[in-house]
């Protein structure tokens, strides 16, 4: 059974489960967009069950039999667990790691107008595709090594030059205004090497990640100087936080 059908089955077991259909419909639209090599249009709402949603559901069913109430608790827990699997599903099926949406990229371009970009370790090229859709000069690079393990690098949405991050900086670092790196792995030190090299260049370094969390090495976060910038704050208003991962855009020196 595929992921969305599993969610629908979960909801069918809940009293008044139709209240949760809006979550499933949103997820369906995301899957449809990515299946058609398009970015989702809008940043994601919170999809995990809120405390209020759980409380309301339980309160409405306080008078049912104890066995039925226990079943309700179990079914709610299953549905919440399956919602929490969305990120893993998107990563495995589409190579979609950072939650790049059309409104996020549009805001990025608005705040950094008439500027060029180099994307490092771009994977399937979601970010670069949308930058190019907006007629932004963009160099998109990745050594495509992840294609040996999952969908990342196997189903490209735009032209991705097969080039590792340091070589890409040597090739294009002096030709762009901004270098952007999204969701660098947390168990590799390439991000530290990239940071050292970028400090030799006159560019903005934009990083999408979770500080001391799901992305980037500890050494990177130890060494990175995070710059407060109102442009970054405004852009982050359109970046999705739909589960327990709290990644965002940073300006790094």
From TrEMBL:
This is SAM-dependent methyltransferase. It comes from the Bacteria.
């Amino acid at each position: 059974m595929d992921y969305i059908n599993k969610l629908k089955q979960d909801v069918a077991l809940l009293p008044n489960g139709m209240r949760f259909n809006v979550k499933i419909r949103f997820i369906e639209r995301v899957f449809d967009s990515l299946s058609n090599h398009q970015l989702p249009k809008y940043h994601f709402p919170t999809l995990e069950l809120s405390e209020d949603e759980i409380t309301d559901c339980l309160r409405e069913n306080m008078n049912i039999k104890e066995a039925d109430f226990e079943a309700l608790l179990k079914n709610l827990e299953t549905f919440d667990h399956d919602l929490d699997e969305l990120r893993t599903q998107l990563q495995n099926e589409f190579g979609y790691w950072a939650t790049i949406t059309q409104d996020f990229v549009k805001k990025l371009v608005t705040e950094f107008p008439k500027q060029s970009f180099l994307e490092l370790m771009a994977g399937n090229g979601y970010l670069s595709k949308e930058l190019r859709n907006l007629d932004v000069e963009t160099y998109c690079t990745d050594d495509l090594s992840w294609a040996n393990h999952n969908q990342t690098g196997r189903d490209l949405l735009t032209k991705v030059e097969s080039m590792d991050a340091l070589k890409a900086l040597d090739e294009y670092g002096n030709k762009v205004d901004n270098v952007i790196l999204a969701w660098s792995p947390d168990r590799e030190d390439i991000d530290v090497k990239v940071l050292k090299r970028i400090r030799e260049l006159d560019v903005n370094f934009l990083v999408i990640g979770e500080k001391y969390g799901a992305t980037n090495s500890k050494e990177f976060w130890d060494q990175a100087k995070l710059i407060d910038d109102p442009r970054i704050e405004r852009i982050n208003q359109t970046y999705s936080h739909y589960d327990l991962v709290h990644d965002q855009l940073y300006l790094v020196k």
